[in-house]
Amino acid sequence: MHILYAASEMVPFVKTGGLADVAGALPAALAARGHRVTAVLPLYDGVNRAGLEPGEEFMVPVGTWQVAARPWRSRQKWGDVYLVEQSDYFARPHLYGPPGGEYADNPERFAFFSRAILALCRELRLAPDVLHVNDWQTALVPVYLREPDDGDGLEQSASVLTIHNLAFQGRFDVTAVNVLGLPPRVLGIDGLEYYGDMNYLKGGILYADQVTTVSPTYAREILEPQNGCGLDGVLRARSADLSGIENGIDTELWNPASDPHLAAPFSAARPEGRRANRRLVQRTLGLEEADAPLLGFVGRVTGQKGLDIVLDAMPALLDLGVQLALLGDGDPLLTRRLVEAARFRPGRVGVATGFDEPLARNIYGGSDLFLMPSRFEPCGLAQLIAMRYGAPPVVHRVGGLADTVVAWNDNPDSATGFAFDRPDTAALLAAVAGALEVWKEHKLFARIQRNGMQRDSSWQARASACEAVYEKALEARRTRKIGGALKQAASPRPHGRG
Ligand code: ADP
User: Is 70 exceeded by the pLDDT of residue 160?
Assistant: First the structure.
């Protein structure tokens, strides 16, 4: 089948988090199974244009007006990627806004991008079987796919929406209506309206033929009010069409045996190189070059990732004799607390801010344990990478962390890490203390490392689950089974336009 994969970020072009990793890896895995895959993403300022081929300008409706855009093609081994150039919207220093903030015109930028995806299909005469979109930034695609003035030639195409993080919904005040160009029936309570605002993700959940999220446990969690971020009712209405497919990673790009950023490559059979990576991390972060157990963290600095728990636990953690190597970018207040903590405990706590791929890789490849006390975690890629790089993760047993890490307490033989059940200081400390006891038993610890390094986290092992969802989406389209709240829409409309 022909799959059009759309996302707001994608490796190797541009990355702020796990979505980019997934978007960079899943299309190749699908293509390897014989599908034609085309990907679309915005052309941001920071993207290297070398090797990109400019195409013909095309027009995209936004609100009641038209905006010119240009596709730039990048030929990947697995298929074409089109990067949509629109410099008023995307030639900016950040993707979504400065750290801790958002660009005020995000509703317009991503309404444009969603419509540009369909306009591009028309322009290039692409008629994908499935449009697979991701998160709120492209969640309007399934909505526009069903509306009269877009998507010519796409009557047969089905849509799949993947939710990578329900906490980000693209919720904007009602003035967003002006840029949407959607008829009133789509803007009401059975459509995008959400407590007087416009909610792009809600629109996608209601209109997509199938909805997926990134782990089976998270797919269940988000149906409950405490984890549903206010959309649990909407998700329950679509629960028959909702599934959880665990994320994978690109095991070539994340391969400790050939990673060019590592101070020293290594493998499960020859793990010695990890020492050099550890030294590099210690030197980079001003840590004492001691053999103390090194606890690593790489990720967004937000309440979600639980770094405040690490901060509160820090004195007691250090009493356990560990060093901390933390790399993160995000919330300015929390980041300042981290930097202060490092200044207060020089040589024991090292903090780097910003986005630093080489350092991140050496933290994965040099730490003894990887901390992931996330309050919630849809899937998490960092723990997958940490396992592959021989740093057993210590995780809060939630969402994808529960699905991907086999905890020492549960199964010592096949354990790949350590888990705790409450996102608080005491639980984190107890888990780290327990992990350090195992760390002292070299043989036991080496087995946990080996189990993690040998875990198959590849997309190849998961692409067939995506195919099954695409088939279901096509079936829904063929039989014109109407999903979600469209059933209850005040003004009933046939599914699709054909
Ligand atoms: P998220 O919730 O941010 O998507 P994931 O664990 O799913 O979290 O994926 C995060 C990805 O981003 C991983 O590849 C991780 O290595 C990378 N990453 C996060 N923060 C940084 C940083 N400051 N520097 C380098 N890489 C980072």
Answer: yes
